[in-house]
Amino acid sequence: MTARSLLTRLPAALLAAASVLTGIAQAEITISPLRQIVTRTKPTAVYEVSNASDRIIEGRVGWTDLAAIETGYAAATPRQRARLSAAPYLVVSPARFRLEPGKRARITVTLKDGAQIPAGERRSHLLVETAPARTPLRRAGGGLEADVGLGVSTPVILRSGLVAPDVAIEETRLLRDSDGMLELETKLTRRGQYSAYGRFVAIMDVAGEKTTIAQIDNVSLHVDAQSRKLALGLGKSALPAGTLSLSYIGGAEFEGRVFATKTFEIAAPE
To answer: 259 CB contacts (<8 Å, ≥6 apart)?
Structure first.
């Protein structure tokens, strides 16, 4: 899921200061699930939007097209949108909603009647935007008020079929962060016309005793990016002698399938 802060009536010089508001705004609404797939045999996807704030929220629902990059998402170019966007084949209902505190709303995404799904896979991101709320920004000598809204997006994938992608774990290395703790950096690469989705797990095996030392959930490898970079904080200053195993394990439609695995022998600390 991605989120962005929509600010109006706020001087550009204060944009950096306003970023502290994003964490507050993001807590106001939640949307689930984090990812949906639409196919000819499953033409409808249902999302649930929840109001976790103490105010009445008015929102609107639409689409945004984001291109996958190694580190996440970026705005799609017109050329990328033309070959990637699923929005022209889908209908969203309702387009607007109003939620009191603690209430929920259902958002339905449906394949258009008579639409022919293109070969392979397309993706657009369902975008839920809330109306701005007046929020004070404190500064020395007085206060300033800004209108802050929130946009939360989640991918909707349109598929004509399904074949498991070919995934590999590459360019793995151990680094240290500024506190001297170990951090593992690696890259997932994929081939094929369909995306992969799942979790990335690091397991340490010491004399037959296995322990999960790090895990990242909701890791997607989209069709418009051949690779995805990951960084896992291991929370340790050193690893014991043993075997470190890295695995990318499928979720949702590929639940439990091991897409890729790689092992490393770890020597005893000197």
So the answer is: 164, 165, 167, 196, 198, 248, 249, 250
Largest CA distance in the chain: 67
pTM of the model: 0.81
Q: Structural domains in the chain? A: 2-159 (2.60.40.10), 166-266 (2.60.40.10)
Report H helices in 85-166: none
Handedness of CA 174, 227, 4, 140 (dihedral sign): positive
Residue 146 has pLDDT above 80, yes or no: no
* C-alpha–C-alpha distance, residues 49 and 22, integer Å: 18
Tell me the helix, strand and coil percentages in the chain, rounded to 5: 10, 60, 30
Task: State the Cα angle at 132 between 130 and 136, rounded to 5°.
Answer: 140
Distance CA 17, CA 11 (A): 11
Q: Which residues contact 34 (CB under 8 A, 6 or more apart)?
A: 1, 154, 218
Q: Which amino acid is at 169?
A: I
Query: For residue 13, what pLDDT is reported?
Result: 30
